[in-house]
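Hey, can you fold this one?
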Amino acid sequence: MTRPPHQRLWAFLQGSPEKPTYWLTRSFFLRGLGAIYTVAFLIIVNQLDGLIGSRGLLPVPRFLGYVGERFGDESFTTLPTLFWLGASDGALFGAAWLGLGLSVMVAVGFSNAPIMFALWAIYLSFLSVGQQFWSFGWETYLVELGFLAIFLCPAIKPLPLPEDKPVNPVVIWLIRWVLFRMMLGAGLIKLRGDPCWTELSCLETFYETQPNPHPLAWFWHNSPTWLLTSGVVLNHVVEIIGPFLLFGPRRVRHVGGGLMILFQVLLIGGGNLAFLNWLTIVNAIACFDDTLLRRFVPKSIRDNAWQKAMAKRPEDYSQKGHMVVVGLLAAGVAWLSISPVANLMSPNQVMNTTYDPLRLVNTYGMFGSISEERLEAVIEGTMDDPSDPKAEWREYVFHCKPGPVDRPPCTVTPYHYRLDWQVWFTPLTRSKDPWFVHFLYKLLVADTRILGLLATDPFDGKRPRAVRVDFYLYSFADEDSPDWWVREYRGPFVSPLTLDNAEMIGRLHNWGFELDP
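Sure. Predicted structure:
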């Protein structure tokens, strides 16, 4: 008997009559998440001393003292972090190295609930005290996925393919729900945030003005207009339509996940956006089940995982205690999703916002507006009298910020230079934030912790007599130029500062910073 057309269509879209299993999905996802955690903790190990250490730009002890003073007994629930137990440099580095070690374990295939819980708790602790330097959407994204990963793992046995722990599909759906909100939030904030997204012209300036371009950004910036316009259309298709494919039948879901991975690869080829795009690729693995992923692994592993999956009866996926825990998890995520969903639907949508202290369910979005020009803060110092018109000023060069015009853009993704990114905002806000004034002071005293965050120190560890900050307009150079950039002076931002500047010293004292002798 011939089946009706709608049943044949559904059977085609479903692709397989078999009940989906997620042995390989879990293994791929957890290893990928472990790799992202490894990068994230490596960034902390390398940069925490200068950024948030006891003598850094925004010291953790100073911040915790402020929070404790303001919130008293509610401090921990307001700012959940293990560093309430101790915020010495030793504690910070110890936690960072522990996180790095556990991350490597997960990346090579060994994970269980305690390991994933420890990673989540440690990274959340750094996120809570990282202040401006840890204030971006990919941080909460990692914490949210890291929390769900706790429920994806075996309770105890840290094995890559544990026989006694089938994957609960509810957790897989919750991970897809994160991807749905991430992508749709990014798409809607663009449509609401800047007319260039609806005019299909944003990419005409994006590659030049993004925070940290890499060499391929020059190529994309100089591409034909039709190609840049097509890129904006692709962005809207993937971020507005694509998320709804994630909840379709198997083949539709696979197409949605494949589109998102392809889109993230294109984004990686256009700029250094920390580990955001890589983490999104890991998130998209949850769109696939074993019927697809088994084609991408060696036969020995594939057969092993597949035989285990097929040996399990449907009732094996309903382990009583685990089902109760996962049911409570799903109910909690549903409750916490109310505010993020309301934000998605609001014409006044905001980007990268969390609604609970643990950052369990968040709202996301990037590049709601695109700058038309690239204004850069160029920081210079001198060993001469700063009032002398003939004084020689030397530039402090960052790792990834444009500086000397002949230096090519960097390629560091998924790594992230946090100071470079934060300085990018300075010309946009025109604000002399406490951390920025403290940064200039640290340059004046030649603090090795801060100089270690830069690509070069023009004074080889010696104290300059003065520092200053000027604004320059940067543009990509033409194809026939030997340089990568062209820059044009746009005026001063911070007049020459010396260590005896009373206004600077007074501000730093008022903000609670400890000054060097």
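The mean pLDDT is 90. Let me know if you want another pass with a different chain boundary.
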